[in-house]
Amino acid sequence: MSKILNNYYFLQFDEYLHKQLKEKFGTLVIFFVLMLYPGSGNKTFGAFFIIIFSILSDIKNKRLDLLTFLPYSRKNIFWFEFAFTSLLILLSFFIGLPYYRSFQNFLVDIATAMIFYSAYYGLSIALTCGLKIDPYGSIFLVLLVDAILSSLGKEGVKHLYNPYKLISPLRQGNMLLSFVFAVICIYLGYIAFSKKGAD
To answer: What residue ranges are annotated as transmembrane (predicted)?
Structure first.
C-alpha cells in the first residue's frame, strides 16, 4: 500500500514539475542563471526572487484555486513548490561547482542559501496566509525586519550583543541555530498555508 502511495505522490510531483516549468520557465531562468555564479550573495538574491515569482506569485494571482481543482491538496502544493524551487537552487550550485575554489566553500554556500530560502519561504507564506498580508509585501517585510534586527548590537560588547544574529537567515551567526530557526519557519508556513484551505 505504501509503495502505491509513494508512486502516486511521485507521479503527482512529476506532473506538477512539468506544469510549473512550462508556466514559469521564462521568469525563473533569469534568476537561475544569476545563481550559477559562486558566492552566497548571488544565491540568496536569486532565491529571494524565486520565492516571489513562484508560490507568492501563485497566491497573488489566485492561481492556487486552479491548482486545487487538479488532484493537488494545499499540503501537496506547499511541499511540491518547495521541492521544485529547492531543486532549481541546488541545480544551480552543481552546475556552478567547477567555479568554486574548494568543496568546503561549495558546501557552506549550499547550506547558507538553503537556510535563507527555507526561512523566507516559510515566513512569507505564514504572513500572507496567516495574517493576510500582501504576498509580495510579506517577503519584503521579512527582509526589512531581518535586516534591521540582525544589524542591532555590537560584536565583542557583552551587554550590547544581539542574540538574534545567531538565528538570522541573513547573518546566520550560528549555522545550526539558523537551520533550526528555518525549520520552524517552514513549519509555520506549512500550518498557515494548510489551514487556509479549511477556512
So the answer is: 28-56, 77-100, 106-123, 173-193
